[in-house]
Please model this.
Amino acid sequence: MTMAIQFKLENFEGPLDLLVALVEKHKLDVADIPIDLLCEQYLATIRDAEERNVEVACDFLLMASELMLIKSRMLLPRDPKTDEDPRKPLIDAIEEYRRTKLAAAELADLFSLYGTRTAKEEDDLSPDPTYVADHSVDLLRAALTKIYTETRLSEKTAKEDFSVIVNAPRIPVEVVITRLLDTLKSKRSLPLGTYLRASENRPELIARFIGILELLKARLISVEETDEDAQDGVTDMLSEVRILLTASDEEIADAKLESGVY
Model:
């Protein structure tokens, strides 16, 4: 089976790629391209390739003929108010190609970050049309009382258990993050286990853990294992994992301004 061969001229993917390189090399104004200079440089590149026995693809030769045609049309008299600039199609094509290259570079960076990730499919859940607003605490307590009643538990038990849920301490994650950063600025590092065990209750423990994850995601801290004898990332019970501050005050301020979380 015969395979179609696509020739490249040095590092150029096509004639527009070569034109963009020439425009950037000579710092030409794309909106007012000096067609004589561009045509001369383009043909010189083609001739140099042919002298080095490089087979030039037909699309490069086609563009050369287009440049010669535009150059000849520029010599003809025309009315600037009514006649279109012969260079306009070429200028539009170059501009579009440059935007495409910039977009391709941005997409390549995004692909390197997210190309290997997969998204979880959405669960097929039907909305509940009866749930239209937040319920009051009394209504929720009454519902819990009904459940306890049906399970032969007293209303007093329901109120006591529900009060634990309602009155549970609310620990803002941003406050926990700010305190941790202030501590790390003075101490530079903290034992991870000691920091988590110092939580007074479960909500604070959860908030501290979430805070560590947020700071790791923002690359402001690192969590490192300090046992030099550990091999292949495997730690033992005597190993100590520490939280280390890796960002400067300026980086912390920029992250705070960008996220608005801490």
